[in-house]
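[audit] Reproducing an earlier prediction to check determinism. Same input, same settings, fresh worker. If the tokens differ from the archived copy the diff job will pick it up downstream; this log only records the rerun itself.
[audit] input (180 residues):
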Amino acid sequence: MPAPRDPRPLTGEPLALDLLNTRWMSDGSLQDLLADVGGLAVWLDSAGLGGEYAPDSRTLRNVRQSREALRAVVDGSPEEGAPLIDAVLAHGRIRLSMTPQGPVEVPELSTPAWGPGWLAARNYLELLTTAPDRIRSCAHESCVLHFFDTSRNGTRRWCSMATCGNRAKASRHYARTKDV
């Protein structure tokens, strides 16, 4: 039986930001995909990790801890979030290996239940190395989503132009025309 459809409005971001986006606003209330193990299964499948890691209560607890560490560093400050990210990263390391296809990096984890959360924290470090200024929060005041700006000139402001960008444009238009 296929996993339920992912209900989130923004998917497909790098793993660290995709994990942050397991919380979103809908009709003025905060939704949380990681409210239960079923939601974890949806996220694991959506992130391409469904066959590798079990959606169980230990994995859910660890993924939530990783999400909170990411939230602290992305929405807060490096001083606040760095120790929390380090606490997640302490549960694994990378072993370099050579295969007939070439070099590979193999995660070695303290327990498989740390896999998804550890990979998301590691991905955040990769994003910081690649382009830290491209890690963004949506500019709409009531949106809590994050994205990696891949636009050519690096000026993307909205998680989605079709939703948040359109709402902002409509709001500006209303403000201009209501007094006319």
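[audit] rerun output stored. Observation attached for the diff report: Helices lie at 15-20, 37-46, 57-76, 78-89, 115-130, 161-177.
[audit] end
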